Amino acid sequence: MPIGDAPPLVRPIVGRANRPAITSHRGRARWERLAPYLLIAPAVLVIVLFRLWPLLLGVNFSFTGDGDRNGTPVGLDNYTDLWNDPVFRIALRNVGLLVLLLPVAVAIPGLLATFIFLRVPGNRLYRTVYFFPAVLSPVIIGSIFNLLLAYDGPLNELLQTAGLGSVDWLGDPKVAIFTVVGVHIWATFGMALVVFLAGFATLDTTLLDAARSDGASLPQVIWHVIVPGLSRTIQFVFVTTMIGMLTSMFGLLYVMTSGGPGGSTYLPEYYIWIQQGQMNRPALASAASTVLFLVMLVVGLAQIGLLRKAGRED
C-alpha cells in the first residue's frame, strides 16, 4: 500500500510521538534567546539604580533653586547663572584646551607601547617604570611637582644654569594650566600604556613582517599597519583619556594651584566642588555637572565618529 494511503489512525499516532520533541526544541530555542538578557539583567539593574537614576535626579535637581528658593522650581535660572559666571566660562575654555591636547595625551603612551612591543632594549624595565606613577596618589604627585616646579625650585635652577631663565610654572596664568595638564598626563599615561599593550596582543604580526620585508620605515609601519590594526584600541583610549582629564584632575588642581592664578586653571569638576562644598549651592553644582556630562557625551561621540571615518578612509 502506498505511504500516502496509510490508514487514518496511523497519522495521529506518529504526530503524538513527535510532539514532545518539538515542544522540547521550542523551549530550548526560547531559553537560548532569553539567556543573554537574563545574564546581563543584574548588571543592567546595577547601572540603572546606581548610575542612570542618580543622573536623572541630578538633572532634575539642577532646575531647582538654592538658598531661600531651596527646592522650588526655577527653570533655567541655574544655567543662566553658569553662562554669566566668568569663572565657569574659563572652565569651559580649559575643556576646549584639554580636547586640543588630547591627541598628545594618547600619542605618548601609544608610541611608548609601540617601542616596548618592538622590544627595544630594556623594554621590561620601561614597562614597570612607566606604570609606576599610575599607582601614586594625586596628592603625592602634586606635592612632588610643587617642589620641582617652584620658582626657586630645581627645574628653574637647571634652566638658569643653561641660560634659559626661570619660568613661573604655577604662577603664570598662561602657563599654569599647561603645567597641570602635563603633570596629569605624566601621572596617568601608564594605564593607557597597558591598554595599548593589550591591543598589540591582537595585532596580526604577519602584517608587520610583510611591511618590514617590503622595506617600510618605522613611521610607515606605525601609520599604515599599527594605527589601522589598533583602531578600536585607539578609540577606547581616546574616550577614557578624555573622561579622565575632565573628571580626575581634582586632586592635582587642589594641591598644585587651587584653581589659580586668577581662576586660570579651573575645570568643571573643580568648579562643581567649589559651588557644592564652599558656596553651598548644590543646585548650581548639579547644573554644572549636567553641563559637564553633556560636554563629555558630545566630545566622546565626535571623537569616535572622526576616528571611525579616518579608519574607513585608510
From TrEMBL:
Chain segments annotated as transmembrane: 34-53, 95-118, 130-151, 175-203, 236-256, 283-307
Annotated membrane topology: Multi-pass membrane protein
A GO cellular-component term linked to this record: plasma membrane
Domain ABC transmembrane type-1: 92-303
The entry's keywords: Cell membrane, Membrane, Transmembrane, Transmembrane helix, Transport
A single GO BP: transmembrane transport
Superkingdom per UniProt: Bacteria
Protein's cellular compartments: Cell membrane
CDD domains to which the protein is assigned, alphabetical: TM_PBP2 (cd06261)
Family annotation (Gene3D superfamilies): MetI-like (1.10.3720.10)
Family: Belongs to the binding-protein-dependent transport system permease family.
Name assigned to this protein: Sugar ABC transporter permease
Organism: Rhizocola hellebori
